[in-house]
Amino acid sequence: MELSIVIFGLVAALCWGAGDFSGGVATKRNGVMIVAIISQIIGIILLTASAIIFRENIPSNIDLLWGAVAGLCGGAGLLALYHSLSVEKMGIVAPVTAVWSAVVPMSFGMITEGLPSISQLTGFAFAFIGVWLISRDENSEKIELNRIKLPLISGTGFGLFMILIDQVQSSGIFWPLVGARMATIPTFIIVAYYSRKLKISGIKFLPLIVLAGFLDTGGNIFYVLAAKAGRLDIAAILTSLYPAVTVLLAWVLLKERLKNRQWAGVVAVLIAVVLIT
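Given the sequence above, the corresponding structure tokens read:
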């Protein structure tokens, strides 16, 4: 297995984890929709500028369509995630979303590309265990199906994004992701308008929102690079480790105490990376 898929996958997880941390802090003082919309606008500006600077050829309409459909799925997953975080404990939402967002593309990859090696399958298991231990709230009540419907929808949306963006046939990276943003931004604005949750005045922590946009975009770029470099299931598993980054940043920057089970999860994640590689 090429080292590039490991590097790209882990960098994507780093970007998404740090982006979730930045966006999560920003949403505490702003409406969820305005944070989501601004971060997506930052993304489309960054991606368009990158495509022009690197003189990336505009892909076919089919590839742009794949990007747009992927963006709609990812956008639906993002809205479901934010809504579920507003009504449910993060200890339930985070692990279910992260694990399920990996299961969907992993299953697709195994069907289309065959089973990976035994050591990599074992690494997948350690990755799931690690993400669950890191994110799980040990004080949460017993999880019922009704409480995880939104996290499952969110994970499905993210997983479908991973599958669909990998269907782009061109070698380009930036333009297909521009297509994804062109689909999500108007969708978010329409949802915000009709739900009357678009509050533009008095935006706080704008630099954090901008940073979240940069990091989310970086995560998308490096995930596409990882998926192009090797197997879809391996790219999906490596990028699904992003909750570990979010929790560790909260430990370092917000002085949130890590429990023993979370440290065990960190160890499990490190073992997973070694086994997968």
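DSSP finds eleven helices and no strands in the chain. Try to locate this feature in the token string yourself.
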